[in-house]
Amino acid sequence: MVRICAALCWFEEPVEFLQRCVRSLAGVCDELVAVDGGWRHFPGAAPMSGPDQEEAVWAAARAVGLPVRVKVPDRVWGSQVEKRAAVMEMAGEFCDWVLVVDADEYVAHADGDVVHAALEVAAENVGIVTHRNLHRGWTADNPDPPRAGMNRRLYRAGTTVIVVHSGYIRHGEYLHVADPVDLREALTIEHDNWNRGDERNQRAKDYRRERERARVEVWQ
């Protein structure tokens, strides 16, 4: 049977968010690679978050029996995209498929047997899942809530180099995936938008503004 490893990036996240995310991976993922650290242009970026956050990852993984590898870099990442690409590559060393997840997300529904069975026979390099943005506590300046767009979350190990939101880029080439593995009935990820606190959300908005100004990333 194929092995699935979750690739989790985090930096300065609420402990309860990290715990919720990690616990939710049990039953669909066989292992977890979690990497701390901020990235350039993010306000207050540093190589690591508070120690309570790393401990939350370890504790949540132990609680659900999920093998975990936690890595703390010795530098600030060049960009958010660079970090995600590196974490996906790390995760790909230990599995057949990589599941991309952020700390403010969690698996809301999963039929692990169906997911594994489908990936076992898949010829494709990418799988799509149901992805929902939650708008509880919506307080952003923009009156329109964030859209649910990125549903490409499973990637065959060894083919994933750069993932930019809904984009799938391999070896620098943007790939349009016409027929991905459709796992929308078997796996749902929910994104808990805007509930990490006003201060953390403001830093995220400042980063997006600076990222666009500096053109350090292109988000498809």
What's this entry about, in short?
The chain is α/β, with parallel strands linked by helices. The protein has helices at 15-24, 51-64, 80-92, 112-121, 198-214, and strands at residues 4-9, 31-35, 68-71, 97-102, 105-110, 126-128, 130-134, 152-156, 162-164, 167-170, 173-174, 181-182, 187-192.
Description:
The structure is a single chain. Mean pLDDT is 84; it is low at 137-150 and 164-172. The chain has helices spanning 15-24, 51-64, 80-92, 112-121, 198-214; strands spanning 4-9, 31-35, 68-71, 97-102, 105-110, 126-128, 130-134, 152-156, 162-164, 167-170, 173-174, 181-182, 187-192. The protein is α/β, with parallel strands linked by helices. The strands form three sheets. It has a seven-stranded mixed β-sheet, sandwiched between helices. The protein contains five helices and 13 strands. Helix 1 (15-24) packs parallel to helix 2. It is globular, with a radius of gyration of 16 Å. The chain has a single domain (4-214), classed as Spore Coat Polysaccharide Biosynthesis Protein SpsA, Chain A, CATH 3.90.550.
Name some characteristics of this structure.
single chain; 220 residues; 7-stranded mixed β-sheet; 3-stranded mixed β-sheet; 5 helices
